[in-house]
Please model this.
Amino acid sequence: MPDCHNCGGFVTDQYVRVFAPDGMGNVRVCPNCEDKLRDGAEVRDAHSPRQTNR
Model:
């Protein structure tokens, strides 16, 4: 099963198809990663914590 390289959390195959670079079976950062963000082809530290709608 695919997972997040940053936090180890579960991600779906569909999420990997959309957000992982070509040829990668896992993503570098997922929605559960509060300390990292995708920034184009790169991953960067978040400037502030994400707000969640919980």
Observations:
- The mean pLDDT is 79.
- The chain has one helix and two strands.
- Strands lie at 36-39, 42-45.
- The radius of gyration is 11 Å.
